[in-house]
């Protein structure tokens, strides 16, 4: 999980594809490990409770319960 920062505003993926809201400074963003798509943490957590695929490209998500994939840091 990452904190969205002001240096990320030029990113082509500046919108959560689940809720369709733009990422804003300080939003918690989770990037899926295989496809690297990013979503608001709360949005993707809710999605992954019932599905095991990326909401955008449908790539299978393996090891959803792994805690070593969830690291808090700010995207540079």
Keywords:
76 residues, alpha+beta, Herpes Virus-1, four-stranded mixed beta sheet, 1 helix, 4 strands, globular, disordered C terminus
Written description of the protein model:
It is a single chain. Strand 2 and strand 3 (38-40) form a beta hairpin. The chain has one helix at residues 41-48; strands spanning 2-3, 28-31, 38-40, 73-74. The protein has a single domain (1-71), classed as Zinc/RING finger domain, C3HC4 (zinc finger) (Herpes Virus-1, 2-Layer Sandwich), CATH 3.30.40.10. The model is unreliable at 65-76 (pLDDT under 50). It is an alpha+beta fold and 76 residues long. The longest helix has 8 residues, at 41-48. It contains 1 helix and 4 strands, in the order E-E-E-H-E.
């Amino acid at each position: 999980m990452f904190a969205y920062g002001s240096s990320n505003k030029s990113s082509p993926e500046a919108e959560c594809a689940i809720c369709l809201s733009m990422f804003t400074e300080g939003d918690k963003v989770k990037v899926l490990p295989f496809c690297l798509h990013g979503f608001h943490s709360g949005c993707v957590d809710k999605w992954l409770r019932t599905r095991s695929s990326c909401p955008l490209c449908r790539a299978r998500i393996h090891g959803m319960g792994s805690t070593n994939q969830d690291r808090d840091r700010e995207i540079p």
